[in-house]
Specification:
The complex is a heterodimer of chains A (63) and B (201).
Chain A: H1 31-44, H2 50-62
Chain B: H1 8-33, H2 36-52, H3 63-80, H4 90-97, H5 109-118, H6 121-132, H7 137-144, H8 148-168, H9 179-194
Helix pairs in contact in B: 1-2, 1-3, 2-3, 3-7, 3-9, 4-5, 5-8, 6-7, 6-8, 7-8
Classes of the chains: A mainly alpha (63), B mainly alpha (201).
Domain Anti-sigma factor NepR (chain A): 30-62
Region (Disordered) (chain A): 1-36
Biased composition (Low complexity) (chain A): 13-24
Chain lengths: 63, 201
């Protein structure tokens, strides 16, 4: 019964994590796995720089 | 079946779908190359290529998966031209760090991002697709044009490497800071690129 992750208090993150459903519950995700999603989601949720809309608006006129 | 010229309405649909996936393209690109400005350049390049190739998109299929393939190929090409060095963007991760709430000791996302960037590119992209982007192994295999078992193996190795780095706190300060490491990565990229069909078609 020795702890295999001495640095972590094995505390559940507060419930309500939006990205908690991972589909396959075979193995426990390490702590960083949620961080990986956060890293990705944080970019997804960033406001889009104007340059992208400008580029998309121009797509038609180039064709 | 030869590609057909799209109608105006189909083009409008395509454009709307393309617009919708831009945030995901940015997130994938940021994970791949680590720097926000370069990632956004890559996304713009991807958008132009996707628009030019829209006849090859099958309506009803996943725009995200289709554009990820384009972005990935553009990244591999640019990487081999030495445009990206996988440099780490500190400001992004620091901003992200404020995100988690209610956690006793959050993993430092800056550490995680740096650790991610030390992975060989094909493992990094596999982990990004499955672990962050939410793609199935099958979808990720399609995007990377390899076998499902290969993706599973890459994800497994990436996870093991991150586990080791993050548990030990043994994360390199600079991911690709020296020539030897960079050369090794380019060699791996050659392998990755060799495993896929023509990236331009």
């Amino acid at each position: 019964m020795t702890s295999h992750t001495p640095r972590n208090p094995q505390r559940q993150p507060a419930s309500g994590s939006p990205a908690a459903s991972s589909g396959s519950g075979k193995e426990k995700d390490p702590d960083w796995a949620n961080g990986l999603k956060q890293l990705y989601d944080s970019v997804v949720e960033e406001p889009l720089p104007d340059s992208f809309q400008d580029l998309i608006d121009k797509l038609d006129s180039n064709s | 079946m030869p590609p057909e010229e799209r109608t105006a309405s189909e083009k409008a649909d395509f454009k709307r779908e393309l617009t919708d996936v831009v945030p995901h393209l940015r997130a994938f690109a940021r994970g791949l190359c680590g720097r926000a400005d370069m990632a956004d350049d890559l996304v713009q390049e991807t958008l132009l290529k996707a628009w030019a190739a829209q006849e090859r998109f099958q309506p009803g299929t996943s725009m995200r998966a289709w554009t990820f393939v384009i972005l990935r190929n553009a990244y591999l090409t640019d990487m081999r031209r030495n445009r990206f060095r996988g440099e780490y963007d500190e400001t992004v991760a620091e901003r992200v760090l404020t995100a988690p709430a209610g956690q006793e000791e959050p993993i430092h996302l800056s550490d995680m991002h740096r650790a991610l960037l030390t992975l060989p590119p094909e493992r990094r992209e596999a982990l990004l697709l499955v672990g962050a982007g939410g793609f199935s192994y099958e979808e990720a295999a399609t995007i990377c044009d390899c076998a499902v078992g290969t993706i599973k193996s890459r994800v497994g190795r990436a996870r093991a490497a991150l586990n080791a780095m993050l548990a030990d706190g043994n994360i390199p300060k600079r991911s690709i800071g020296d020539d030897a490491a960079h050369r090794a990565i380019l060699e791996e990229l050659d392998d990755v690129a060799a495993g896929q069909g023509s990236s331009r078609s």
